Amino acid sequence: MNSYSEDNYQSCQMKKNLAVLQEVDFFSQVPPQALKIIAFLCRRMFLDVGEIVFAKGDDPARCFYIVSGEFELICTADSGGESHIAKQGDLVGSLSLLARHSSPFTMTASKESDVLVIDRATFEKVVVQFPELYKITAENIAKRIYRWDALQCEKRCSDKSPRGGVSFL
Question: Which residues form the Cyclic nucleotide-binding domain (predicted)?
């Protein structure tokens, strides 16, 4: 590919990525210029059925927006072997943008899938230029945790389970 073709391809890909990210609620408060940079720096990943994205215990160091396809998020024996399905429109691993951590699950493609990948190092470079992005992201993650916790509390109340939720910490 010559330089013009490569530049044209990158510009086209950035526009596609930007269009996708603009529809993601998690990124709705991100300043437009910062979102354009993220769209340019993120990458597309195409996975076949059975491909493992990361394993339990790994630091994913990136988050994944599922453009199409489906993933099984598999917890091992210490959680009773439970699994969860992440599908088109789901964002997996947003905590990875802010901090290193060990994943509590293995992420495996259960269908052919297309994902946008934003890695922590790239995100940190954008935060240097847009410091408010860190606070926006932390607030969005907190909102997601509270929504998840509310659902878990509803389940526990109906099951009469005595355990508290994450927001009790």
Answer: 26-144
